[in-house]
Every structure is written in structure tokens, then in C-alpha cells.
Design a protein that fits this description.
This protein is of the alpha/beta class. The protein folds into 2 domains: 1-37, no CATH class; 40-236, Rossmann fold (3-Layer(aba) Sandwich), CATH 3.40.50. The chain is 37% helix and 14% strand. The strands form 2 sheets. Strands 1, 2, 3, 6 and 7 form a 5-stranded parallel beta sheet that branches. Helix 8 (205-216) links the parallel strand 6 and strand 7 (221-229). Helix 4 packs across helix 6 (136-148). The longest helix has 15 residues, at 96-110. The protein starts with a helix and ends with a helix.
Length: 237
């Protein structure tokens, strides 16, 4: 009761914000209009890229990724992009609740036949974690843990800092990330089926490198999921 009273008092001082993207909303609203009307990625999905097969532009000659499949509930655009950027770079860790909810629902749909032993997440360097104050992928993984009752553990360490990836090509991303991750000391993943979580998938290089590490140490299978993913250029045309 006291908690609710404090919450209502905070609304009188600070504007209430959409629980997904962080935009200001009316006192009695949970989500803004844009987030209420978001369209989920759905249908039969390509396991390599996570796009609906009708929109997939993967070539049959492309290398099979280290993860068995990838899914995300949304594309990185409009209010979803706003949400992802605020969550990652502008100090809105509370957005993990709704993001994790959306991801958990997508996981229940597309990975319903997979029996996961563990959930893990893409790590940050110690320096980056100290600067940001939290690992956004870890927060998402822990929200999913609560909803799906799958234990979440830190399995991977980022042992080498990498250049900013935003303006890098897919090839540059792969090169930058090579040798950047390793299994945490004392961790065993042999014969484990693992769900690997990130916030945004751009080219998939980071998820692929993390999955590679888990596979190298004997994981049975690695499946990947993110809150959102970028569309390939061909799909934007």
C-alpha cells in the first residue's frame, strides 16, 4: 500500500512513461499508442536469420551459424528502436520488464519443443559494465528466467574489448569479435541445451561468437533470442 502511494506521488512529480519504449504517457496508460500497436514477427521463420521465410534473404551458400536458431519478437524500427536505445545507452533498465515479457512469449511459441537446461547472455567487458552500470542482456535474461523457470547463469566472459560495432560491416564485425569471448572459469556446459540472450541482433556476429564458445566447450545445442533485430537492406527496399 505504501509502495503504491509512493508510486502515485512519483507520477505527480515525474511524468509516467511507456513501460516498453519510455515515451511519456497518460497517468492511466501502461504503453504508448505506438507500442500498443506493434506488430510481432510471426509465421514460419528462417532459423539462420529469424525473418519470416517469405521475407528471408539468406543464401543457401551462407555459412550455417553456430546457434541452432534465432528468434526476436520485433524489428529494430520506430518505437522498438527507441526502446532498445534508451534501454541500452540512456539509463532505462526498468524497460527490461516489458521487453523480457515480449521475448518470453516469443520463446514459448517458437522454442516450445526445446528443453533448455540454462539461459545465458552476451557479456560486457568489466570496463563497459562499470560505465553503464548494468548489462542489458543480463537484465533481459533474468526477466525470461522468472517467466519460463529456466535457471539463468553467467557462462561467458568478454575477455577483449572491441571497437564500436555500429558502423562496421558484417565482415569487420566478425573480425573484431574473433577471440573476444571465453567460458567463465569453473563453468561446465557439456551436453547442455542453452538459450543465449542479447538485446539487439544486427548481423548476428556477437551471438555467433558466443555460441561458438559454448559449442567449443561441449554444449549440446545453443539457441539464440533477442528483443529486436535489424532488417537486411534488401528487405527495406
Amino acid at each position: 500500500m505504501i509502495k503504491e502511494a509512493l508510486k502515485e506521488l512519483s507520477y505527480a512529480v515525474y511524468p509516467k512513461r511507456c513501460e516498453l519504449c519510455g515515451e511519456v504517457v497518460a497517468f492511466d496508460e501502461k504503453l504508448c499508442e505506438n507500442c500498443l500497436n506493434l506488430e510481432l514477427i510471426s509465421g514460419e521463420l528462417c532459423k539462420k536469420c529469424g525473418n519470416p521465410k517469405a521475407e528471408c534473404s539468406c543464401s543457401k551458400h551462407e555459412k550455417t551459424p553456430e546457434f541452432k536458431a534465432f528468434i526476436a519478437p520485433y524489428y529494430y524500427e520506430e518505437s522498438v528502436a527507441t526502446a532498445a536505445n534508451r534501454f541500452k545507452d540512456f539509463g532505462f533498465p526498468e524497460l527490461a520488464y516489458e521487453m523480457g515479457e515480449a521475448m518470453a512469449k516469443q520463446i514459448e511459441i517458437y522454442y516450445k519443443d526445446i528443453c533448455f537446461d540454462l539461459i545465458t547472455y552476451v557479456p560486457l567487458t568489466k570496463e563497459k559494465l562499470k560505465t553503464r552500470g548494468y548489462n542489458q542482456s543480463e537484465l533481459l535474461a533474468k526477466e525470461i528466467e522468472k517467466r519460463l523457470n529456466i535457471p539463468c547463469e553467467e557462462l561467458i566472459l568478454k575477455i577483449k574489448a572491441t571497437p564500436q560495432q555500429k558502423k562496421s560491416s558484417a565482415k569487420q564485425r566478425r573480425t573484431n569479435l574473433r577471440g573476444s569471448f571465453d567460458l567463465k572459469t569453473g563453468i561446465r556446459v557439456e551436453d547442455k541445451t542453452i538459450l543465449l540472450i542479447d538485446d539487439i541482433k544486427t548481423t548476428g556476429s556477437t551471438l555467433n561468437e558466443c555460441a561458438y564458445v559454448l559449442n567449443a566447450y561441449g554444449a549440446r545445442a545453443v539457441y539464440a533470442a533477442a528483443f529486436c533485430m535489424t532488417k537486411r537492406k534488401r528487405e527495406r527496399q
